[in-house]
Amino acid sequence: PGDHPLPWQLPPDHPVDPAQQTRKLKDLVVPAFQFHPFTDPTTGERCSYCFCGVRCSKSVVGDDVKILDATGKYVMPGGIDPHTHLEMEFMGTVTIDDFFTGQAAALAGGTTMHIDFVIPVNGSLSAGFESYKNKAKKAVMDYGFHMAITKWDDEVAKEMELMVKENGINSFKFFMAYKGSLMVNDELLMQGLEKCKSLGALAMVHAENGDGVAEGQKRMIDLGITGPEGHALSRPPVVILKTCLFYRAMPVVTCDFIFKLSKFLLLQYTLLHTYVDIAVRRYVMSPPIRKAGHNKALQSALSTGILQLVGTDHCTFNSTQKAFGLDDFRKIPNGVNGIEERMHLIWDTMVMSGQISVTDYVWITSTECARIFNIYPRKGAILEGSDADIIILNPNASFKITAASHHSRSDTNVYDRRTGKGKVEVTISGGQVVWEDGMLNVMPGSGKYIRMAPYGYLFDGIEKADAAYLASLRAPVHRTKAAA
Ligand code: URP
Ligand code: ZN
Ligand code: ZN
């Protein structure tokens, strides 16, 4: 704000005394996690916020203040994972990580907020919302909700409005896959998209075509292919293509809007291809992992800004649950882990390789998610008034992922034995140090529900875009062509 330097930029003439940097400060002037000017505007004195040793009158904290030395490390906003499924009832079972274990794992990996998907109960959004409110009572970090739409009638349309206006939800999810459970048909999708737009809510889509998948699965079974490889073979890329083409033909939601929506990316597709074996149950997820090389294309799209976010789709099942599909791949619960690994893997894959800058990293892992879901700058930033969700990442330390040492309840990890450079050494959630020296210190119930207002920035200019689209339909060239 104003002319002040940003907190991490010391004025060039600022004295830095190493002895003072590490001393136990009494009456240290540190307004807790708020931006504090280096020069006191009333007295003109330098403050000791940055350890220069000159006290100012802004605010005083006691001896118990904790001092963290981040010399040579990066201090960044905590990560926000836009796509998770904690304690979700799915494919005859429930995901193994709940709002306690899943969030604890997230904090150990530098993620301080996530947005989970509420699944309606018998189509009822209100019942689904109540159920997830209960599940989240043990939350140890902040969270928000997307809401899935699984059926359509006037009641659902009314409830969507209620969710946006009363319950702080600004995004709805349509699963075009999972026939017989979550899947919605094209008619419902169109009605749902129109409703989203009228409410200023974002629409999200699982873009596999459920009928196509069901047909593919039947063919595999007819061919006698019942093992995990049948999962990938039954869902060729064409089942996604149809959905994409369909969106582009939608006059209600402009292409621009859809284009903006398509900028989400999931971690596993960016990273996993190189060593995934589709014939292994623990890798079964939807859409399936495709050919080696796709991950590189996705990384390029991320580095050029075509894709702007990375979520995880953290949806964990242990090996016993995965074994439900021992004789039939259709019964293997779909989903893999990622909530704890995301920050490390993006750093190692994208920053260490030089594909993106450190600033891009903050954008991709935190800021842009906060902007899209309309919670910036409360989240996604280190600014005056922002929540104190902060991480310290040591670029010189290394990480090693193992199923034995991770914090998820699952006994498997799709990134098992993966090593890399860059380690989140400290996580601060809501002003509390919750991860330090490899130890978690979390309190069930401390996580807050973050309400998200409609009409985020992706809606800017949408009316103009709609008007231009309608004008183009009325243009003489179209009529002439139609007459011909
Ligand atoms: O395999 C996946 N992705 N499982 C979670 C459900 C979904 O499709 O989001
Ligand atoms: Zn999905
Ligand atoms: Zn998902």
H and E order: HEEEEHEHEHEHEHHHHEHHEHHHEEEEHH
Q: Note the total helix count.
A: 16
Average pLDDT taken over every residue: 82
How many strands?
14
Looking at the overall shape, the CATH architecture of the largest domain is Alpha-Beta Barrel
Query: What distance lies between the first and last C-alpha atoms, to the nearest angstrom?
Result: 60 Å
Ligands bound here? N-(aminocarbonyl)-beta-alanine, zinc ion
CATH fold-level name of the largest domain: TIM Barrel
Whole-number total of structural domains: 2
Shape: globular
Helix content: 25-40%
Q: What is the CA-atom radius of gyration, in angstroms?
A: 24 Å
Structural class: alpha/beta
Biggest sheet, strands in spatial order? 1-11-12-13-14
Assign the CATH superfamily of the largest domain: Metal-dependent hydrolases
CATH class descriptor name of the largest domain: Alpha Beta
Strand fraction band?
Answer: 15-25%
Extract low-pLDDT stretches: 1-39, 46-59, 248-263
Describe the sheet with the most strands: 5 strands, antiparallel
Short précis:
This protein is an alpha/beta fold. It has helices spanning 18-22, 101-108, 125-135, 154-166, 186-199, 210-222, 229-233, 238-248, 255-261, 267-271, 294-303, 319-322, 342-351, 358-372, 462-474, 476-483; strands at 74-77, 79-84, 89-90, 93-94, 111-118, 142-148, 171-175, 202-206, 264-266, 309-311, 390-400, 419-429, 432-436, 439-440.
